[in-house]
Amino acid sequence: MRRISLAWQIFIGLILGIIIGGVFHGNDTVSNILQPFGDIFLRLIKMIVIPIVVSSLIVGVAGAGDIKQVGKLGFKTLIYFEIVTTIAIVVGLLAANIVHPGTGIDMSSLTKTDIHSYVQTTKETSEHGIIDTILNIVPTNLFESLSQGNMLPIIFFSVVFGIGVAAIGEKGKPVLHFFQGVSEAMFYVTNLVMKVAPIGVFGLIGVTVTQFGLKSLIPLSKLVLTVYGTIIFFIVVVLGLIAWIFRVNIFHIFKILKDELILAYSTASSETVLPKLMQKMEKFGCPKSITTLVIPTGYSFNLDGSTLYQSLAALFIAQMYGIHLSISAQISLVLVLMVTSKGIAGVPGVSFVVLLATLGSVGIPLEGLAFIAGIDRILDMARTACNVIGNSLATIIVSKWEGKYDKAKGEAYLAEISGERDAQYATES
């Protein structure tokens, strides 16, 4: 009997969700029936993410055991994140200037979507600058951060605690063994949760298409095509070139993360693949101490797809209103995005909140976001997949930068994946 791979199961769930959503477009009853399927899957993922991040970080840092080494690693990682996300912002601006996706759009043909909740969130975070971000990394109450899922304070505590476990030597070994057990148990739970991923994808995409319909894409098809084309260019050319400089084949990352990329794309949530991403990067030759620090931190500071989209969408809205932004205004936009995209990391609907916080600074009407809010989910799918690839590549590069990448282990894992695929094809034929 043929065994359908997880990637194909997720893809089938995606297609079925689109079909059901298209057939029952505008039917609230069907939307309400589908909603719990997606919500339960996302809740299962959120349930396992924090225990995995905490236990893996403590084990990884305690294994490294050197506070200077951890500090140097964190500094290098943040430098890499800032360089690559700035490149992503510039690529988004260049694409918008070349293609002009917003020029000539009849705004009367577009459906406006309520963005009140995003505006409210932006008001709450408008005073939230770099200093506040740094202060908020240090938790005043760990359990409050855990209950709110605020990842940066959790990462900070886990790193400090891991250093403490390493510092007390033999006395810390029982603690280390405990968290090793927690980490292994949670990865087993992850494998169980992933079995319901196709059902979750079916529910999530089904609700999206049911509510907005495929027709909503037509007036904004130029924006959708520009965003997708630019993200593909950024992944293959820009990230591919960075990978080549560090002697990494970007297509090997695609091969390793096939299941995760389809899942991240389908759910528009990079959180759904965080546990497996950490696991696979470790199998690919990256040490645990680097994998467990770079990937969770990257989820707040290295959102390549999101920052690229933010700059492109800002110019799209300006073009839609016939506003010409000078070179100096666009440079100002780059500088503002470099700050705002980090300053409110972790806020729900972060891409929209960042855009709302940014548009006013360069004189672009905030109301323009209401015209693209309806298709944001479709765009979010592409930028989420880009974020996943960007963080995976960052982990490999930082590992090589530190001289700790295990090339033999990575090649063995690639060979194992190729062997499994060959065996699957043989079974199917």
Automatic annotation (TrEMBL):
Keywords: Cell membrane, Membrane, Symport, Transmembrane, Transmembrane helix, Transport. The chain crosses the membrane at residues 7-24, 44-65, 77-99, 151-169, 189-213, 225-246, 312-338, 350-373. Its main location: membrane. The keyword Transmembrane applies. Gene3D superfamilies: Sodium:dicarboxylate symporter. One of its GO terms (biological process) is dicarboxylic acid transport. It comes from the Bacteria. It is found in: Cell membrane. It is a multi-pass membrane protein. One of its GO terms (molecular function) is symporter activity. NCBIfam families: PRK11283.1. PANTHER family: PROTON/GLUTAMATE-ASPARTATE SYMPORTER (PTHR42865), PROTON_GLUTAMATE-ASPARTATE SYMPORTER (PTHR42865:SF7). This is Proton glutamate symport protein. It comes from Weizmannia acidilactici.
